[in-house]
Amino acid sequence: MIEEVINSFDYIVQLKEKGMITWEEIFPSFYSIAKNNFKVIQENGLLEDVKKILAYTKPLKTLSEERKERRLEGLKDSLKILKERYLVDEVLEKPEKKLAPLTDIKYIKKVGTKRALILNKLGIFSLKDFFYYPPRDYEDRRKVVKIFNAKEDEKVVIIGNVVKSEEVKINKGLTIYNFSVEDDSGVIIVTFFNQDYVKSYLKRGVKSAFYGKIEYSYGMKQMKSPDFQVIESDEDFKSEILPVYPLTFGIFQTTMRRIAKEAIQQTYFLEEFLPEEFVQEFNLLDLKKRIKGIHFPLSIYHKERSWYSLKYEEAILFELAMIYLKLKMKEMKKGETKEIKGELTKKFLNTLNFELTQAQKRSYEEIRKDLISPYPMNRLLQGDVGSGKTVVSELAIIDVCEAGYQAAVMNPTSVLAKQQFKKLSKDLEPLGLKIVLLTGDTKESDKILIKEKLKLGEIDVVVGTHAIIQQDVEFKKLGLVVIDEQHRFGVNQRLELIKKGNHPDILVMTATPIPRTLAMTFYGDLDVSLIDEMPKGRRPIKTILIAESNRKSLYEFVKEELDQGNQVFFVYPLIEESEALELKNAISMYEELSKVFEEYKVGLLHGRLSPSEKNDVMDKFVQKEYDILVSTSVVEVGIDIPDATVMVIEHPDRFGLSQLHQLRGRVGRSDKQSYCFLVIDDDANNEIKSKMNSFSKTLDGFEVAEIDLKWRGPGKFFGVEQHGIPEFKFLDLVEDINIIENSRKKVERFLATIQSFDRYPNLKHELQTRYGDSIHLVNVL
Ligand SMILES: Nc1ncnc2c1ncn2[C@@H]1O[C@H](COP(=O)(O)OP(=O)(O)OP(=O)(O)O)[C@@H](O)[C@H]1O
Question: Which GO terms describe its biological process (predicted)?
Answer without folding.
Answer: DNA recombination; DNA repair
